[in-house]
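Quick log. Single chain, no ligands specified.
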Amino acid sequence: MADGRTSTGSSGSRLLGVITLVGLASLLLFAFVLTEPDVRLHPTTGEKFGQFDAVRLIYLHVPMAVLTYAAFLTCAASSAFYLVRRGAWWDVTAHASAEVGTVFCGLVLVTGSIWGRPVWNTWWEWGDVRLMTTLVLFLLFTGYLALRRTAADPQRQARRAAAVALIAVLDIPLINRSVEWWENRTLHQQSTLAELKIEDLTLFTLMLGFLVFGLVFAWLMLHRFRVGWLEQAQARHDVTLAIAERQAEMETLDVGAAIGESGGEK
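-> predicted structure:
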């Protein structure tokens, strides 16, 4: 490669990867073994009710949703800086965070669907505002990534992608506030964490989930950024090589023409 680097790995990234794996294992242990299921007793009948074991998905679903917001906001901020400064660093960061955010967003939809089946008795509810706005966000950034794959001038492509990111990110406030703004059009409850309805080991495990998925996000971003930077370096190298080859061809043609002219004079 042009910058001498041919791998996205480093001692720091490998250490981060090990810590992330240990964190994931710990989170799964707490989430699916050590914490208690959501079981409550009806005050009059004494009948058990609640989300039971399905509530354990909160330790995965909620942190991934927050990291989805973080990834797409990073993409939008980097896109704005790119439009102002035209720096390749900002463009690569925007692209990397969009890819990572789309993965997280897809997992949010999947885990939410799995969680919703035993709690709401349905995999999907088309009338749910939060579900639909989240799906729209996923589709918008899928379109962003598709735009990144089109054959076009790299700078023009980056500008168009930046504009799409700045428009798509406007969906995040709608998702976040949908439960409060359209409470009659969603099956989702309001934020349990914001209302301080969880405590002790449940609260600890949820905080651990935020930390662990933050590490996952950082590890993925690090490697995806490095891949993007290598792609940029390769593209610059290819352009430089193509220009050098073209210059060599022109010099050869000029020499040939000069020889021809000198031969004609003789």
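The helical segments are 11-34, 58-85, 88-120, 129-148, 154-168, 171-181, 200-265.
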